[in-house]
Structures are given as structure tokens and as C-alpha cells.
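Entry 14. Ran structure prediction on the chain below.
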Amino acid sequence: MAKGKDVRHQITLECTEAPGTSRYSTMKNRRNTTQRIELKKYNPVLRKHTLHREIK
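Output, C-alpha cells:
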């Protein structure tokens, strides 16, 4: 069993080209990755892969 504070947190990624149309949820280790994550994910509304950034 894990003790103390949980290092992995759930984050939300949102599309930068068309905000509000596509969001993904994933986990991130805050100890290893302190900056905001940017990943290319599929946006079903635009029907192409776009850049998704971590939102607060």
C-alpha cells in the first residue's frame, strides 16, 4: 500500500486549435514532470490530430 501523499495526479488535456471541442483525461507524475504536458491527440470534431495542453 502507498503511504503519504500520492505522487500521481489526474490531469485534463484540452485542444489548443478548437478549445472546448476535445478533452482527454490522463495521469501524470508531478515529481518527474513539473511543467505542463503537451501531447498530440485526436480531435473527433476537427477529424485530425491536434496539440492538446494540460489545463488547470
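Strands lie at 8-15, 23-29, 38-43, 48-55. Will compare against last week's run tomorrow.
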